[in-house]
Each structure stands twice: as C-alpha cells, then as structure tokens.
C-alpha cells in the first residue's frame, strides 16, 4: 500500500485489510510529512519508509521488491485513501484465483467522469489495451507479475497504470478485470489529477510511452470476468 500524507485514512484501511484477509500488510510510506507511518504501524502494518518521495509507482515497486525478496506469491495493491473497500478483497482474490490471471484489476466504471471516459477511450485506441479504468490502484499481482515489476526495466515507468500494463502484456502475462465497489476519497486529492498541469504532463508522458511501445506489442491475453459484487 503506497501512502503519502494519508494519516486520516491509512489506519482504517490497514485494519480493514487485516480483518478481510488476515494477511501481512505493508505500507510503503512515500516520505510523508504527516503521521502516516505512525498511524499505519499502530494499526498493525509493517511500514517501509522511503528516504525521499518516489511517487505512487516508485513506492509500489518498493513493495514489489520487498515481496519478491521475502517469498510472497501474490501482492494486492490498494490506495490508502479509503476509496477501496477491504471487504471486497476476498471477492477480488477469488476472481483472480479462478481466472488463472497474472494480474486482476478491480474496477468501478460508474465512478469515471466524462473526461476520464474520453481519456481512457483514447488510450485504449493507441495501446490496444482493453481495460476499463487504467488508474485503478486496486490490483492483485501474481508471482510472475511481481518478478517483472520488481525489475530494473520497470523502474523506468513513471506511473503505475498504463506503463505497467504495457510491460506486463509485452511479457505475455494475462490481464483481467473484475467489478468492485469504490467510494470517493475521504481526504486529500489525486496525485495524477491534482491540477491541469499534472493532467497535461500525465497525458503527454503516457502518450509518448504508448506510441513508443506500439512496435513492441506482444501476445494479448486479456479477459474480463463476470460481475462478482
């Protein structure tokens, strides 16, 4: 769970995950300037604190490398802001296991704004990735995906969404989606969509990445699961 300045919600999310799955919870504290690390540790998480801010993907990758080194077979990522419902995790985990996928994305199309729908249609067109919501941070990665995303090659990615999926597709890993329930943020704001400037930077960087990867398209093995919620 990458987290930066999420002291208002991180403890509840950690407790929710532990209650839902009884699994280890690792919070990668992305150089927060508030009490995020203390709140997460008090709630029972193992906290990895980065010495300087790496962004959401850098923090997530630190967690992937921790999982790889410590022999975990799967990693669930979710936001620390309370958007994702921990009680949905068993459903997502079951969908992942039954689908024999390398990556399962929990999506909630109903939360998408008109602008996001247009943006995602554009990126589906230029990438060939048939994913409903590229920025959903609720995902389950299997061991093969963890190994790919812990690599140096994955360190070149700026964001954890399209770039990650393109890289996994190029390795011929299976990507699937399953519907989940999400809520609006309780506190703070999105890192990607914090201002028009960051949105413009995201669109330009992702477009360049998508175009650069067009010639590197590998076998596409994607599928969508039936609604399980």
Succession of helices and strands: EHEHEHEHEHEHHEHE
Low-confidence stretches: 218-222, 224-229
Based on secondary structure, the structural category is alpha/beta
Major sheet:
5 strands, mixed
The helicity comes to 40-55%
Count the E strands: 8
Overall geometric form = globular
Measured on Cα atoms, how large is the radius of gyration? 16 Å
Strand-residue proportion: 5-15%
Write out the strand line-up for the largest beta sheet, numbering strands in chain order: 4-6-5-7-8
Q: With helices defined by DSSP (H or I, 4 residues minimum), what is the helix count?
A: 8
Mean pLDDT, nearest integer?
85
Compute the separation of the termini in Å. 23 Å
Domain Glycosyltransferase 2-like: 1-127
Organism: Tahibacter amnicola
Protein name: Glycosyltransferase family 2 protein
Provide a descriptive summary of the structure in words.
- The chain is α/β, with parallel strands linked by helices.
- The protein contains eight helices and eight strands.
- The strands form two sheets. A five-stranded mixed β-sheet has the order 4-6-5-7-8, with helices on both faces. Strands 1-2-3 form a three-stranded parallel β-sheet.
- Helix 3 (55-69) crosses helix 6 (143-149).
- The relative contact order is 0.16.
- InterPro entries: Glyco_trans_2-like (IPR001173), Glycosyltransferase_2 (IPR050256), Nucleotide-diphossugar_trans (IPR029044).
- Pfam families: Glycos_transf_2.
- Residues 1-127 form the Glycosyltransferase 2-like domain.
- This is Glycosyltransferase family 2 protein.
């Amino acid at each position: 769970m990458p987290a930066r300045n999420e002291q208002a919600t991180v403890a509840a999310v950690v407790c929710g995950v532990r209650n839902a799955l009884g699994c280890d919870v690792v919070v990668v504290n992305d150089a927060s300037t508030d009490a995020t690390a203390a709140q997460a540790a008090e709630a029972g998480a193992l906290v990895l604190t980065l010495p300087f801010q790496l962004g959401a993907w850098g923090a997530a990758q630190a967690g992937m490398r921790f999982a790889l080194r410590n022999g975990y077979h799967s990693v669930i990522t979710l936001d620390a802001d309370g958007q994702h419902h921990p009680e949905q995790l068993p459903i997502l985990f079951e969908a992942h296991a039954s689908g024999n996928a390398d990556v399962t994305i929990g999506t909630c199309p109903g939360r998408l704004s008109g602008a996001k729908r247009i943006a995602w249609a554009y990126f589906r067109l230029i990438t060939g990735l048939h994913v409903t919501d590229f920025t959903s941070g609720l995902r389950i990665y299997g061991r093969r995906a963890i190994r790919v995303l812990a690599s140096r090659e994955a360190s070149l990615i700026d964001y954890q969404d399209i770039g990650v999926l393109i890289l996994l597709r190029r390795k011929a890993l299976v990507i699937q989606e399953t519907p989940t329930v999400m809520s609006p943020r309780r506190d703070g704001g999105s890192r990607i969509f914090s201002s028009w400037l960051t949105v413009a930077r995201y669109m330009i960087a992702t477009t360049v990445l998508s175009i650069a990867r067009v010639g590197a398209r590998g076998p596409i093995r994607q599928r969508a699961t039936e609604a399980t919620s």
